[in-house]
Amino acid sequence: MTAPPGGALGAAALPAAGLEMAVDDPSLLDADRLMVRFGARFACRDVSVRIWPGEVIAVVGESGAGKTTLLDCLSGQRAPDSGSVRYRTSAGGIIDVHQESEMVRRRLQRTEWGVVRQNPRDGLRLDISAGGNIGERLMATGHRHYGRIRAAAADWLERVELDVARLDDLPAQFSGGMQQRLQVARTLVSAPRLVFLDEPTGGLDVSVQARLLDLLRRLVAELDLAAVIVTHDLAVARLLADRMVVMQHGEIVESGLTDQVLDDPQEPYTQLLVSSVLRV
Amino acid sequence: MTDTAHAATPGLAGYNFAYLDEQTKRMIRRAILKAVAVPGYQVPFASRVMPLPYGWGTGGIQVTAAVIGPEDRLKVIDQGADDTVNAVSIRHFFARTAGVPTTTRTQDATVIQTRHRIPEAPLQRGQIMVFQVPIPEPLRWLEPREPETRRAHALADYGIMHVKLYEDIAHHGQVATSYDYPAMVAGRYLTAPSPIPRFDNPKLDRSPALMLFGAGRERRIYAIPPWTPVESLAFEDYPFEVQRWSRPCALCGATDSYLDEVVIDDQGNRRFICSDTDRCEQRRAEAAS
Amino acid sequence: MTAMTDTAPILEIRDLTKTFVLHTRGGASIPVLDRFSLSVDAGECVALNGPSGVGKSTVLRLIYGNYRAGGGEIRVRHAGRMVAVTDAEPRRLIDLRRHAVAYVSQFLRVIPRVPALDIVAAPLIALGCDALEAQARAGALLARLNLPERLWTLPPATFSGGEQQRVNVAVGLIAPRPLLLLDEPTASLDAGNRAVVIDLVREAVAGGAAVLGIFHDPMVREAIADRAVALSARDRQEPDQQAGEP
After folding, report:
1. All domains in chain C, ordered by first residue
2. Closest by CA position to B8, among listed B99, B73, B102, B110
3. What residues of B are in contact with residue A146 (Cβ under 8 Å)?
4. Which of B163, B172, B238, B241 would best serve as a mutation to test chain A binding (most A beta carbons within 10 A)?
5. Which of A139, A146, A242, A254 could bond B235 through an S-S bridge, CB–CB 3.0 to 4.6 Å?
6. ipTM summary value
7. A27-112+195-280 in CATH: which number?
């Protein structure tokens, strides 16, 4: 490797990237005062979240804190009792997700959005080949060329580090980690702008978790994806998220830059959560 | 569809014309009208118990009973043949309960009830095809949950159906589905054409005849009205194709008909002959004269 | 805002106050900073002095947005304007870190399983630099810091303290930013590598960067700091229980 002129600190001009502008960019998803009640209990209470393009947000908290309910509201899978979710489409228009027809929501969910579920059984068709699983979103959006669909599926199999030779194998024959990577490929093949991940590493062995996290981190950066990741694992948040939101009893108790919330937690609940993590 | 409901009309003493009571026929006709109005859409109906077991054409018989009148001439086929047990008994059933004339000639029939085939002779304006349907839901193989398949139809969310074709090509090198091959009706509803061979799918497209489908056990009626566009699913690089045979019919020499393979002796010798017995006989008669 | 000149401040701190409240320890309150003020100009290197535990690292972390201020204001120059760090939106902080503020922490904390070369190249790539060029420049910097090339493709988790520190310095210095925060950048380095780091910091200052650093080694402080600011312990209680310090 050769040293560039001027050394590491030389005047080699960097593009004044558009990030200064990016700060003032319009947001991608805007959730306003979401409320969801299960009887007397609040699963979401006055929850407001904004997501900007290319940004990864972790929603952390213990089981029952309302994380998955929030994710379901944000991704249009559950209508809140009150409050709204607004989304800026790639065409530039703003839509009120829960006021739209089911048809519009479904179209969003299979084009501009993606959902990766904790249990691959909920996110995959186990009796359809790996290639068919990856190709489904393409076929659902009108792709009608078998050869190209198959090539895209093979390409994505490689991108999630699965053996292309298994393109025609059934996911039922895959390990848990492989199934989860397949689910990621199946979701990302249609080039979504916003993905929702619900405990993507839950239930996996630690070493398998690590590989999946590395993969997600790489893909999120490569594809400039915006992502909402629900996790109870603070290490997952630290590794993947720019920002995090801490939920307790259906409410957001603290939010901020991931390293700030983890290194200087302000609220009693967040301090308890952070201090409970076993450091190795 | 003449409403005929008097003891004076032809039929079996003690039974209403064409076996079903008029209330039931009206209920079925309402379902048929709705089905014709929304081509390809599966309309639920209160299927009756019929004097034959499920799987023998209970849905088809109810549809035929609801549309047939004394002036009609009925043809019934099973796998293309007029002389199989099922076809013969259904034909006799209506001959007795409705007193209608029957025929085996496609051209002469006004109502044709069928199991698994569409006749080779071109259908004509004014004819009604009645299909016996075991499973009306084309998505059933992929999605067993009825609420999900209904939602898929409501939202025209049919990507999953191409997944099945994809799987066929991936595993067999071609679309292996050879009968009940799914088709889009009027560009809106994905529809099961009943277990007719893929060979017959093109006959559904813009047919001059009215196509009615009855599923007795599943309690569904659907329709393809005359001249409705029907498109069989396919990929751009794997276009829809019908089955072809390398030899003509061993009996009539037809090269354009659907052939059945028949074992003719104990030595395992086989012949390929027309599945449409009426068409085959007519061709042989023409050749002889 | 004032027009940008060579002597315009890059960093302005006014009445910065920070108290850690330990809710898990019965709400114990640990004041660390009480109305601390400081200004650092472009092309200036300021050393933060004071006894261990007095809150020097806390000042750097507050400027970097890693800690949340309790009161007062921190402003950093970015794209010709003074931008508030305190109470900034997370997105603003990410933007500031990318373009305006570099931070060399005392201990390397990186994403596991990522090779050293990629870690060092990352800040350049975040600025839109071509990946190959970023890696070339990262390699040049690591070579200058005498990190053996065989280590470049390995994750730094298994490196020695000194090797990790050099990776850390490289991450902070690879992409020139107007403000450079250094927390003991030479603590575990031998004399030769210490000299390399001193040279690199001097080059940054000569290039117009404002540097605020903690240098326990008087020799290093003498070599690069233009002036020193002392942080007093007058308001500190129970300094050893400060939360959050790794």
Report:
1. 2-100+177-230 (3.40.50.300)
2. B99
3. 165-166, 169, 235-238
4. B163
5. A146
6. 0.89
7. 3.40.50.300
